[in-house]
Design goal:
359 residues, mainly alpha, Butyryl-CoA Dehydrogenase, subunit A, domain 3, 2 domains, two-stranded antiparallel ribbon
Length: 359
């Protein structure tokens, strides 16, 4: 591991369409893995292929009698071939982007194909969401490498100790109060950001996504009274910012949800997002959240409620909230109600994402 002391600004000096952005913060240390981007890409590619195979096997086991099974098998093979043809060494970003777009389109088609087959368990239903996230990660690594070759990336941010750590006076005797006070205390102590290369790439993609789609998040913010930044962070956690999926759980829109919350049906992202956030309106009110909120402890508390209180109730650090910081090392829920002590969350936690876009 290589350890870099960094100053007080977060800058991207090379961007194709966005001007340099700076975020005034205090000093911090960023822990960067020395593993190469190509090796990360290869590892992620293998994980993606494994998830595609698992998805195909689950479908075959559950839906082999369906008339659509042959078509589905052809589509799965097509996606696998598309993934195998992805070339990390490609010098043409447009070709790479076209490949990724084709894969996303094929995934949408596959989602439609299996809609007629009902599966009682969660494993089959969650795998397709994992593949969407896998492809988004591959894109992140590729873009990061291309945009930062022979250039210097300066990153720093301070989570906590900045006046937004928490200002509510809530009793720890209540669940909402104990969750809030926990996050407030963590932020008061201050957090170090420890990002792998993949997470750094993902953070850049997240901030670019927020800038590009800010109006969409603000529209939902206006209807729900929730901060647009928090909505964007939850969206990235659930589906990598895919607007063709439910904010509730990352499943594809246009299909009835089969994992928690089950039975939802929307075809429009904004309508679904409003429904997802409105279902937690009592939590929002507990933390006095509004569209203009800057209370980081309140937003992190809401995020933990949104994901579920399994971590909190078992005295575990929430990967959903703190992945990418020194607060989190390992352990995550790999499915609803199924916790793995050894699993490591590779996604960005909500704390890191919020900190990158809240001034």
């Amino acid at each position: 591991m290589q350890f870099f002391p960094i100053d007080c600004f977060y800058k991207y000096k090379k961007r194709a369409k966005l001007e340099e952005r700076t975020l005034a913060t205090n000093s911090i240390n960023v822990n960067i893995d020395k593993i190469s981007d190509k090796e990360l890409f290869t590892q992620q590619l293998k994980e993606t292929q494994n998830n595609i195979n698992l998805f195909g096997e689950n479908y075959s086991a559950s839906c082999s009698s369906m008339s659509s099974s042959q078509t589905f098998g052809t589509e799965i093979n097509g996606i696998m071939n598309d993934v195998k043809n992805i070339n990390y060494e490609s010098t043409d970003a447009n070709i790479f982007d076209a490949q990724i777009t084709d894969i996303y389109n094929d995934l949408d088609s596959v989602s439609t194909s299996y809609n007629s087959c009902k599966q009682s368990g969660n494993e089959f239903d969650t795998t397709i969401s994992s593949i969407y996230k896998d492809i988004a990660t591959l894109k992140s690594i590729f873009k990061y490498n291309r945009e930062h070759t022979n250039s210097n990336l300066t990153y720093s941010s301070t989570i906590g100790n900045s006046g937004t750590t928490g200002s509510l006076n809530l009793s720890s005797n209540s669940t909402s109060g104990s969750v809030y006070n926990k996050h407030s205390n963590i932020l008061t102590d201050g957090i170090s950001v420890n990002l792998t290369n993949t997470q750094q790439a993902d953070l850049e993609n997240f901030t670019a996504n927020f800038e590009k789609n800010k109006s969409k998040y603000q529209a939902v913010s206006k209807k729900t009274g929730m901060p647009a930044e928090l909505i964007a962070a939850l969206h990235w956690r659930e589906s990598g910012g895919n607007f063709n999926t439910y904010l509730h759980n990352g499943q594809p829109l246009g299909q009835v949800t089969t994992i928690v919350p089950k039975g939802k049906y929307f075809t429009n992202w904004e309508d679904a997002a409003v429904d997802a956030l409105s279902s937690k309106s009592s939590v929002k009110n507990s933390y006095n959240l509004t569209s203009n909120s800057k209370d980081m402890a309140a937003m992190l508390s809401y995020a933990e409620y949104y994901n579920g209180l399994g971590y909190h109730n078992n005295n575990r650090t929430s990967a959903y909230v703190y992945s990418g910081t020194n607060e989190y090392t390992s352990g995550k829920y790999v499915a609803d109600g199924k916790y793995s002590k050894s699993a490591v969350d590779k996604q960005l936690g909500v704390a890191v994402m919020l900190n990158s876009i809240i001034s």
